[in-house]
Amino acid sequence: MEMGYLGPEGSYSHGAALAYGSEVTGIPMQSFSEIFEAVEAGKIKMGILPIENSTEGAVTMVMDGLIHTKRIQIIGELVFEIRHHLLSIGKNTEELQVVLSHPQALEQCREFFRKNYPNIRLLACESSSQACIAAKNKGPSYGAIGNKLAGERYGLNILSDQVQDNLMNQTRFIVIGREDTKATGRDKTSIAFSFHDDHPGSLYEVLREFAKDNINLTRIESRPAKAELGKYVFYIDFHGHKNDPKIQGILKSIEKITRWVKILGSYPLGDEEGMQQKTRVGVV
Ligand SMILES: O=C(O)C(=O)C[C@]1(C(=O)O)C=C[C@@H](O)C=C1
């Protein structure tokens, strides 16, 4: 099964795609938008996208992308330990002037560079693997933040290993597709919604529906509605499957008190309790 990921080969997303299952064939793509578009149009069956990181928080482009699609559903998730390495074609850090990587990866290592190499310029590029290719072509004054495999693949030296600011640096990836996922008994559902107007207790009224039925929420996030200041889209992840009558009851109640609700998908739990499932957690 073809799965689009942020390429080229050797990115963190590539590692996550391969870990999703042996039947997966990774298809490198240039941007998160290209992955969304290809899955939406049915050109590829699935895509994998980072959605949140334990150091940096939400991957906002992916969060925003989810509400603008019509056919896409979240069909799976997996959590990865992300270990960043400072890579270069050169052999020492003294020569380094510029370090390239994906903006998320740069942010996850910003303190390391501020403390140790304040004069090195950090520059964003499309992905960590793209950064490795560029650093190789530019020569020893350029470095890249990437994973070990990318370093090996592109013939770079590890100048410093584990340069992420927090030792425990995890990224949660979602898998998107166009078909519903059947309930497994250990599922999660993601929804997004917004309100008609801003009034006291509006968010509380939504949260109360979950509390009343003893449903565990695992994440709540808000994003600007991209209108005037103060207008937001809320995202909630919770335990349970959208086909469960109890969850359907909650969703019906929420529909009545919000302007719109979008069910982003129900899928098998890949983190928290699911941490033990070997195929769902990995290290890149
Ligand atoms: O640049 C890559 O290698 C990616 O796969 C992207 C990405 C991200 O956007 O979150 C994936 C995991 C890490 O959190 C850092 C970068």
Key words describing this protein structure:
amino-acid biosynthesis, D-Maltodextrin-Binding Protein, domain 2, alpha/beta, Alpha-Beta Plaits, ACT-like_dom_sf, single chain, aromatic amino acid biosynthesis, prephenate dehydratase activity, 3 domains, binds prephenic acid
Describe the structure.
The protein has helices at 12-19, 32-40, 60-67, 103-108, 110-116, 128-138, 148-153, 202-212, 245-257; strands at residues 2-6, 25-29, 46-53, 57-58, 73-81, 85-88, 98-101, 121-124, 142-146, 157-160, 170-177, 187-194, 217-224, 232-239, 260-268, 281-283. The strands form three sheets. Strands 1, 2, 3, 4, 5, 11 and 16 form a seven-stranded mixed β-sheet that branches. Strands 8-7-9-6-10 form a five-stranded mixed β-sheet. A four-stranded antiparallel β-sheet has the order 13-14-12-15, with helices on both faces. Helix content is 28%, strand content 33%. The chain has 284 residues and is an alpha/beta fold. It has three domains: 2-81 and 169-179 and 274-283, Periplasmic binding protein-like II (D-Maltodextrin-Binding Protein, domain 2), CATH 3.40.190.10; 85-160, Periplasmic binding protein-like II (D-Maltodextrin-Binding Protein, domain 2, 3-Layer(aba) Sandwich), CATH 3.40.190.10; 187-272, ACT domain (Alpha-Beta Plaits, 2-Layer Sandwich), CATH 3.30.70. α8 runs antiparallel to α9. Bound molecules: prephenic acid. InterPro entries: ACT-like_dom_sf, ACT_dom, Chor_mutase/pphenate_deHydtase, Preph_deHydtase, Preph_deHydtase_CS. Residues 191-268 form the ACT domain. Pathway: Amino-acid biosynthesis; L-phenylalanine biosynthesis; phenylpyruvate from prephenate: step 1/1. Residues 2-178 form the Prephenate dehydratase domain.
